[in-house]
Write a structure and sequence with these properties.
about 150 residues, alpha+beta, 5-stranded antiparallel sheet, 3-stranded antiparallel sheet, 2 helices, 8 strands, binds zinc ion
Length: about 150
């Protein structure tokens, strides 16, 4: 007992990091739908294709890169009550993914004045809230990604 070498500890730490990275990669996927009849892509999932009214849609993985198409600034009611709206306006944007579909999303990790049409962004999975069973709910938000993807 108690004979832990530095090498064993190092290996354990390395393994954990790799495992976390793999799980992270999985969480980064954006799952959309591809219409098997006309080839249109949608995000998020759709059951019926608005392009051809087909119901032959299959899940597909979309690249998490896109460009800001329109910007909206929202004030969170709780922030207004607390007088914090000047500090943290919520920035919501319509982002066009590189593969075509548009998604309405929160933009985070960016100064609100720096958000403009044409800004390159990338989806990241974030903890949204804790459920009653203490599991975290994850969802995507977009962050600036200058020079990435394409
Ligand atoms: Zn279609």
């Amino acid at each position: 007992m108690g004979d832990f070498s530095a090498e064993q500890i190092y290996r354990h730490a390395t393994y954990s990091t790799v495992k976390a990275w793999r799980e992270r990669k999985v969480r980064y996927r954006l799952e959309g739908s591809r219409c098997q009849d006309c080839g249109s892509l949608y995000f998020p999932h759709r059951a019926v294709c608005p392009g051809c009214d087909g119901r032959n849609l299959e899940p597909c993985e979309l690249k998490p890169y896109g460009t800001v198409h329109e910007v909206y600034r929202h004030l969170n009611p709780a922030q207004v009550v607390m007088g914090l709206q000047e500090l943290h306006p919520r920035v919501v944007a319509l982002v066009q993914l590189d593969e075509g579909p548009c998604v309405l999303t929160d933009l985070v990790e960016v100064e609100p004045d720096e958000v403009r049409v044409g800004l390159r962004v990338r989806a990241e999975m974030r903890k949204l809230r804790r459920e009653s069973n203490s599991n975290w709910m994850y969802g995507y938000k977009f962050v600036p990604a200058a020079g990435e993807g394409a």
